[in-house]
Amino acid sequence: xxxxxxxxxxxxxxxxxxxxxxxxxxxxxxxxxxxxxxxxxxxxxxxxxxxxxxxxxxxxxxxxxxxxxxxxxxxxxxxxxxxxxxxxxxxxxxxxxxxxxxxxxxxxxxxxxxxxxxxxxxxxxxxxxxxxxxxxxxxxxxxxxxxxxxxxxxxxxxxxxxxxxxxxxxxxxxxxxxxxxxxxxxxxxxxxxxxxxxxxxxxxxxxxxxxxxxxxxxxxxxxxxxxxxxxxxxxxxxxxxxxxxxxxxxxxxxxxxxxxxxxxxxxxxxxxxxxxxxxxxxxxxxxxxxxxxxxxxxxxxxxxxxxxxxxxxxxxxxxxxxxxxxxxxxxxxxxxxxxxxxxxxxxxxxxxxxxxxxxxxxxxxxxxxxxxxxxxxxxxxxxxxxxxxxxxxxxxxxxxxxxxxxxxxxxxxxxxxxxxxxxxxxxxxxxxxxxxxxxxxxxxxxxxxxxxxxxxxxxxxxxxxxxxxxxxxxxxxxxxxxxxxxxxxxxxxxxxxxxxxxxxxxxxxxxxxxxxxxxxxxxxxxxxxxxxxxxxxxxxxxxxxxxxxxxxxxxxx
Length: 557
Hints:
Structural class: alpha/beta
Number of helices: 19
Distance between the termini: 61 Å
Oligomer: single chain
Strand content: 15-25%
Shape: globular
Helix content: 25-40%
Number of strands: 27
């Protein structure tokens, strides 16, 4: 029977997430909270064990005698200690500053210096040594308890202290966290959120998504990102949901199957990889036939869901970037209804949701959450006002003033439209809209969505500033690369013709350019949340973009 926590998540009052932790520590100390895989063995953390360690972290930080409100950084992939450190930072009266585990040297140094962090917790990283080398000598380091992490302070040494006995509750107007956004250009901006802004979004998400303590969720998207932080970590503080982590990319499927999540949030690129994984074992023609057979079709769909580890799931979601409608429809046929949502770091990732799923609204990002006011400005920009809007950019008053309208709405930079039922559709980014040589404006996002309907395409960027016609730059999926070039070229040619038939004359694509290497975080062509860095790509591949070609499908050499 779910915990009776309705009074704690009412719309009338915001309860501190820290006070909720004390609640579970007292009422359900032995209930399972987290599972952390280490060498294939799942280490468990009850609420009591979690809070005991968090109290030790808090005590150790207090012993450092940092000024109240000091900024403490966390640089690690998701793990139990990430959550524990975050709690301990709050209890000690400080501000947590998460850094993406994929951040490069310049970003790590910039964040630590800009936020003036005296200490950083470090965990599992793909390039551990490079990250450690980037940390200034003035910043103290504490290593999480995983193989290969060797720092001046080990986790065991740091937490070898009497747990904090007091149960302090921060003021709701205090700053809880500064999240540095992974912008596609320039240095990241530090988005400042208070306990009030974060708590409002996390608490109300439970009402919107019907979450309770019987739910299980995977935490694998970066906790340094606002969506995972609010809708997974902070929401778990309110609903007492249990949480599972992933040991590595290689063990992802194993860990998902072990968790059997009831809630599963992902991003477009990963949903596409799941789809390709299914089709690698069961070709589309055979899958379509089996799904069309009564009774057998339902059994096949269930088996596919179980193989993905999503057999117990009741809610699937996607965010960060648009998911191709064709992909959503494909998953719908195997009983996975992916609801898209939209939000920003600046509004706690709490803007719109398409829960409950509606097939006739595929392609939209859903309706505004209760308490969120969305409007479309004269230039088509989506603007949003809610209690979870940030209080500003850290040390950036001018940028803060520029991002809010005079009447308090957040300028999102997204262009969109709202239908008669309140469903919002994004039609592009204002700054991504470009002008061709003919003086015509083109919004790339809708064209990119059409191209992504071809399952062999994994990444795409439509560009065309000062070109006679737009062009599409793209990367093929790994499965497509195993096919003969002629087959792929035929498929892309058909896509080009189909897409162009649906576009106005000034939008029609002149050609498709297929890139040899994938765009990644490592080569700086994707943000940490897997968004394409459009302007970086346009600058880096300027010669290819401006080249003269006779073919409509061009292969990069």
